[in-house]
Write a sequence for this structure.
């Protein structure tokens, strides 16, 4: 996926300002940065959920706007920050929606297998027959992530997937992102607020500030004391844990 000159204006103000970068295929990339940096807006534009003011998003050789919706949904899955359903659905029924681009409403044995795997990935077996509106916020978040996993696309886009998750499930979420990449060869893009999750589990970092890309590159090139202090405007120290950078701000 290649992004060129991507710009978004709201009420005459640029919230994303002429950004260009390429998402490495088969890797995990995190968009990080302060609130209001434009991370979720970029995610919305590259997934076609938000219109762009200027620029192009090239996906598998053609502009993403040229893809038919059903074809695109077999290649790219997106989980946004706000997920709400008005229907009375069980966890399993929700996860099964991830198979809609392939089989519609008539699930095949292969679809059922993918649903089972996704539910297992997110440790939802004991909740699969419960209704979504009966779950905690963290349990619902895991159910929506399972739906995206069941969609089985090459590209997986997750906007703040660790929101509402406790430490145990947030870490498992990041481990899942890594497994999707390492075991299944998927390209994973995440919007993250936790810098240490990004540093420990991702391959590349796109650090944004004020609607622009402040730094882009491999984790060890972006997650430095100097870069983070400049982007977040607080003082940072960088430690190393298991060969990965760990940031501490003060």
């Amino acid at each position: 996926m290649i992004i060129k000159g991507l710009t978004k204006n709201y009420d005459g103000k640029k919230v994303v300002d002429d950004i260009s970068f390429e998402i490495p295929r088969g890797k995990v990339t995190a968009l990080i940065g302060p609130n209001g940096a434009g991370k979720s807006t970029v995610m919305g534009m590259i997934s076609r959920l938000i219109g762009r003011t200027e620029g192009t998003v090239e996906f598998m050789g053609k502009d993403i706007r040229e893809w038919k919706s059903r074809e695109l949904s077999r290649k790219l899955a997106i989980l946004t920050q706000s997920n709400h359903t008005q229907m009375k659905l069980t966890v399993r029924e929700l996860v099964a929606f991830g198979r809609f681009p392939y089989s519609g409403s008539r699930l095949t044995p292969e679809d059922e297998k993918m649903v089972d795997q996704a539910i297992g990935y997110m440790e939802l077996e004991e909740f699969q027959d419960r209704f979504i509106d009966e779950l905690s916020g963290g349990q619902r978040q895991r159910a929506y992530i399972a739906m995206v996993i069941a969609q089985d696309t090459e590209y997986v886009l997750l906007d703040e997937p660790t929101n509402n998750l406790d430490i145990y499930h947030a870490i498992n979420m990041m481990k899942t992102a890594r497994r999707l990449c390492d075991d299944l060869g998927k390209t994973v893009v995440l919007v993250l607020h936790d810098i240490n999750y990004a540093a420990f589990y991702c391959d590349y970092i796109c650090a944004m500030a004020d609607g622009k890309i402040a730094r882009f590159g491999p984790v060890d090139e972006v997650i430095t004391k100097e870069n983070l202090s400049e982007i977040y405007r607080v003082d940072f120290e960088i430690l190393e844990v298991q060969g990965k950078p760990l940031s501490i701000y003060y």
The CA atoms of residues 152 and 213 lie 30 Å apart. The radius of gyration is 18 Å.
